[in-house]
């Protein structure tokens, strides 16, 4: 049985790296006594896949982990057990069963949505509502990318699906964006911001951005139309028996 | 959002920020307005090392069961953060509350090895606590030292307000009660220390004075004021069944050295190897109750989610209920997909059977610690491991599928000759030969056998029969290592043998600090001021700076490595660790004569530890 777990990561634990989050869940699954399937051999470990590694320092409201279970209770019960076994800042928000044919979390990732805030005093002096459309109106946006052999110019414009400025609760501006997060074309939001600032004639200060991943999407067909949907929508609630 | 002592800018810049943010599963958070005593426990090394230490977990659990006490943790900031904290004057903070530790009531530092002494100064310095105990004001925490190194606390005496000698479970209750009383009645730091000095196991260095002879040896050592005891006796847990054990140990996010449930099955060791300090200072041997161990194992696995459990003791094979415990663990762990690791097992038919059940024999290696290459020298050090036992054990293991063997030896042991060193190479060769003799060609799975022989350099330690022994110089050590390498190169099966040896200069320094006196405090301080810290990390150890420090203080390292006089007063003689100096001297004499001593279960050697009235000393003896 394939199970998809959606969780948030916020607060101090944003400084825990991706590998450590994986180790955290291996242990949390045992603490929660989830009947997860193990690999065989002398050092068995739970079968699990994560959608997309989150960089150190980023918060998220939409992280995904797929596990395989031998048996399950119901969504609410599993969520409650996982949260009891969790740590402050890692909060499970949904547990869903995946259809048999569903691709795993990592393979199906298509895009991710981010909110980008600026640290105090580090917001570039820009008219965002004017500059963002200008930036998006370019047909190509080349950035330098490090490769194994050296540097390469890549066009990131096709990977920027949405970008806008929004007003946060309590005032202050934030940037909202949806970008390619597939294994082939994964775009880092900080890279987009850098390119945007450069194109707008200013530069970003070091560590200026506070980035929150809001959601991770996959492509789905809806009424014959290809559409981005949140990964959790592929699954269904497991009801009480 | 939770409070963090370090800014995002800093946390994003440094390696492994998870070392400094706390918030691990099972970390204890209390309301600080509701506690009277703030205690911070420190392991003066990097997080991944410090978090692997069982002793702190036991005391952390014990303190936090006390309602009015909140015990937190702190470890050495790594060199990257260290530089930032100095530059930006950020005071060192505790992981749980992220509050500066200079505002705490107590800073307890566990001192597990000599090469962390400069890291103690780093902790104090970053915490903005005066390095010298007598310079600390009323508002500064009481700095306590504990752990094996405090069996000779003299080299670091200047930096501590008090030392706790022995096992931590027993006297912290009374010590904290005294602290509450002193705080309530408004008597100051000095008076608290004066009263603490009378408690069992507590040593307050400022109330003791040393005088020296012209040749540099100790002339006298004792209290400098009335009412302070001349001898400090170590503390021992009398009832291993009714004591603290952390059923909910902290689960780090980072992969730490000991990333597993640790079950301490016994304290002490019956063996009495003459180089081994742990084997003497943790006497008498006390076993934990097997039923309790089974219960704790399951509870801890449930509370941590760890996927591995390890037994901890100096010599697991000597735990009388081992087969029962291991059978139980194998059954329960298999159900839970949990691995079992069994260190410090003697290799015999039983242990090989157990190990083949719990590990992949093709991927794991067998470990022997003969410590010396020849039977003669093994008798000198009282290592009761014979060549026959090793060869029989490896033969069995080779048949069971193992192809990798690790061997540990020491170079520079008392009475060592070139023949003894050659023995290291010959024993390694014989093991390889055993493989080729025992296993027919077609059954050799990996085709070959791999022997890894490692040597460390012998460091004489206080409270061992070898506390009188001379320690070799760096040059002698290196010569011995090169000779070992040559001898191994001469063996028929040399291609199957890999040889590793340790750095020599740090081993010499370790020996100097281990048997040092109070005068070394200024050397340690000077070395630290010159930039020494993380001395236990080969890449950071700066021998030249230490040598300069010795020179500038007018002290000679040779004085500390020399053979000690039979009647010499040692800096650590004021500590009563249970084992008497007469016994140690007897063992020293026996070792020089090459005479072995049977273990505690075979025949009592009258070491003196029976006066604690517990443990192996009172078990019925095996039939002779």
Description:
The complex is a heterodimer of chains A (241) and B (624). Chain A has 241 residues and is of the alpha+beta class. Chain A has 2 domains: 2-108, Alpha-Beta Plaits (2-Layer Sandwich), CATH 3.30.70; 111-228, Alpha-Beta Plaits. Chain A has helices at residues 18-31, 75-84, 105-108, 128-136, 189-199, and strands spanning 2-9, 48-50, 59-68, 90-97, 111-118, 142-146, 151-155, 160-167, 173-180, 209-222, 225-230, 236-237. In chain A, the strands form 2 sheets. In chain A, strands 1, 2, 3, 4, 5, 8, 9, 10, 11 and 12 form a 10-stranded mixed sheet that branches. Chain A is globular and about 55 Å long. Chain B has 624 residues and is of the alpha/beta class. Chain B folds into 3 domains: 8-233, Rossmann fold; 260-359 and 594-624, Transcription Regulator spoIIAA, CATH 3.30.750; 360-519 and 555-562, Transcription Regulator spoIIAA, CATH 3.30.750. Helices cover 34% and strands 14% of the residues of chain B. Chain B has 20 helices and 19 strands. In chain B, the strands form 6 sheets. In chain B, strands 2-1-3-4-5-6 form a 6-stranded mixed sheet. Chain B has a 4-stranded parallel sheet with strand order 15-16-17-18. A 3-stranded parallel sheet of chain B has the order 10-13-14, covered by helices on one side. In chain B, helix 15 packs across helix 16 (504-514). The mean pLDDT of chain B is 95. The interface between A and B is medium-sized, with 35 and 31 residues.
Number of domains of chain B: 3
User: So what's the overall shape of chain B?
Assistant: globular
The succession of helices and strands of chain A, N to C, reads EHEEHEHEHEEEEHEEE
Kindly estimate the percentage of residues of chain B that lie in beta strands according to DSSP. Answer: 5-15%
**Radius of gyration of chain B (Å):** 25 Å
* SS-based class of chain B: alpha/beta
> What's the number of extended β-strand segments of chain B?
19
Largest interface (C-beta under 8 Å): A-B, 35 and 31 residues
What is the share of helical residues of chain B?
A: 25-40%
Task: Just name the CATH architecture of the largest domain in chain A.
Answer: 2-Layer Sandwich
Shape of chain A: globular
Just give the CATH class of the largest domain in chain A. Alpha Beta
Task: Give the class of chain A from helix and strand content and strand pairing.
Answer: alpha+beta
Number of beta-strand segments of chain A:
12
| Fourth CATH level, the homologous superfamily of the largest domain in chain B | Cobalamin-binding domain
Number of domains of chain A: 2
Question: Which percent bin holds the helix content of chain A?
Answer: 10-25%
- Biggest sheet layout of chain B: 6 strands, mixed
């Amino acid at each position: 049985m394939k199970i998809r777990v959606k969780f948030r990561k916020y607060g101090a634990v944003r400084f825990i790296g991706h590998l450590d989050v994986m180790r955290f869940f291996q242990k949390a699954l045992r603490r929660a006594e989830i009947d997860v399937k193990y690999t065989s051999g002398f050092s068995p470990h739970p079968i699990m896949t994560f959608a997309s590694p989150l960089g150190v320092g980023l918060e998220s409201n939409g992280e995904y982990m797929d596990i395989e279970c031998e048996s399950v209770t119901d969504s609410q019960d599993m969520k409650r057990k996982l949260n009891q076994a969790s740590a402050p800042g890692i909060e499970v928000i949904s547990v869903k069963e995946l259809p048999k044919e569903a691709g795993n979390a990592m393979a199906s990732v298509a895009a991710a949505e981010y909110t980008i805030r600026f640290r105090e005093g580090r917001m570039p002096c820009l008219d965002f509502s004017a500059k963002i459309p200008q930036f998006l109106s370019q047909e190509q946006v080349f950035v330098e990318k490090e490769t194994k052999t050296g540097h390469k110019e890549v066009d990131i414009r096709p990977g920027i699906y949405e970008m806008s400025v929004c007003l946060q609760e309590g005032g202050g501006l934030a940037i909202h964006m949806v970008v390619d997060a597939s294994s082939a074309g994964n775009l880092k939001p900080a890279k987009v911001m850098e390119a945007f600032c450069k194109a707008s004639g200013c530069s970003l200060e070091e560590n200026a951005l506070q980035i929150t991943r809001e959601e991770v999407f996959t492509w789905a067909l809806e009424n014959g139309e290809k559409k981005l949907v949140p990964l959790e929508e592929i699954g269904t609630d497991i009801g009480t028996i | 959002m939770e409070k963090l002592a370090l800014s995002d800018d800093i946390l994003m810049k440094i390696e492994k920020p998870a070392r400094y943010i706390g918030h691990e599963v099972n970390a204890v958070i209390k309301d600080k307005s509701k506690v009277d005593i703030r205690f911070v426990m420190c392991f003066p090394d990097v997080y991944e090392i410090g978090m692997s230490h069982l002793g702190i977990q036991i005391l952390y659990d014990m303190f936090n069961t006390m309602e009015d006490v909140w015990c937190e943790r702190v470890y050495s900031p790594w060199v990257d953060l260290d530089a930032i904290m100095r530059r930006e004057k950020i005071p060192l903070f505790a992981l749980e509350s992220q509050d500066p530790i200079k505002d705490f009531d107590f800073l307890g530092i566990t001192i597990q090895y000599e090469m962390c002494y400069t890291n103690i100064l780093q902790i104090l310095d970053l915490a903005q606590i005066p390095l010298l105990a007598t310079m600390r004001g009323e508002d500064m925490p009481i700095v306590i030292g504990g752990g094996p190194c405090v069996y000779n606390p003299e080299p670091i005496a200047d930096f501590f307000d008090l030392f706790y000698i022995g096992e931590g479970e027993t006297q912290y209750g009374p010590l904290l009660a005294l602290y509450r009383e002193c705080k309530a009645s408004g008597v100051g730091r000095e008076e608290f220390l004066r009263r603490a000095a009378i408690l069992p196991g507590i040593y307050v260095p400022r109330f003791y004075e040393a005088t020296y002879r012209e040749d540099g040896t100790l002339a006298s050592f004792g209290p400098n004021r009335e009412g302070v005891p001349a001898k400090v006796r170590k503390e021992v847990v009398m009832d291993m069944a009714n004591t603290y054990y952390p059923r909910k140990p902290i689960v780090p996010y980072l992969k730490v050295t000991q990333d597993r449930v640790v079950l301490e099955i016994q304290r002490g060791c019956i063996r009495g190897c003459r180089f081994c300090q742990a084997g003497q200072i943790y006497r008498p041997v006390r076993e934990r109750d097997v039923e309790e161990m089974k219960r704790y194992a399951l509870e801890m696995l449930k509370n941590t989610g760890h996927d591995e459990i390890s037994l901890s003791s100096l010599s697991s094979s000597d735990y009388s209920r081992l087969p029962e415990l291991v059978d139980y663990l194998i059954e329960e762990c298999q159900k839970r997909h949990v691995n079992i690791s069994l260190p410090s097992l003697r290799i015999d038919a039983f242990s090989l059977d157990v190990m083949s059940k719990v590990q992949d024999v093709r991927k794991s290696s067998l470990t022997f610690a003969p410590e010396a290459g020849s039977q003669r020298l093994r008798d000198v050090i009282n290592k009761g491991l014979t060549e026959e036992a090793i060869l029989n054990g490896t033969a069995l293991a080779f048949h069971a599928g193992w192809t990798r063997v690790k061997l540990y030896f020491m170079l520079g042991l008392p009475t060592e000759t070139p023949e003894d060193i050659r023995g290291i190479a010959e024993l390694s060769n014989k093991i390889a030969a055993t493989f080729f003799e025992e296993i027919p060609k077609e059954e050799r799975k990996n085709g070959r056998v791999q022997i890894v022989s490692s040597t460390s350099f012998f460091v004489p330690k206080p409270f061992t029969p070898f506390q009188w022994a001379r320690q070799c110089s760096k040059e002698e050590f290196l010569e011995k290592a090169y000779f070992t390498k040559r001898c191994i190169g001469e063996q028929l099966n040399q291609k199957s043998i890999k040889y590793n040896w340790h750095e020599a200069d740090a081993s010499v320094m370790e020996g100097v600090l281990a048997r040092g006196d109070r005068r070394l405090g200024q050397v340690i301080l000077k070395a630290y001021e010159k930039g020494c810290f993380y001395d236990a990390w080969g890449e950071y150890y700066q021998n030249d700076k230490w040598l300069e420090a010795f020179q500038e203080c007018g002290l000679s390292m040779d004085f500390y490595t020399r053979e000690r006089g039979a009647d010499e007063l040692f800096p650590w003689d004021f500590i009563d660790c249970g084992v008497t100096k007469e016994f140690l001297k007897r063992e020293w004499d026996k070792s020089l004569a090459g005479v072995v001593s049977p273990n505690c279960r075979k025949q009592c050697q009258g070491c003196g530890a029976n006066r604690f009235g517990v443990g192996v000393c009172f078990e019925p003896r095996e039939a002779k």
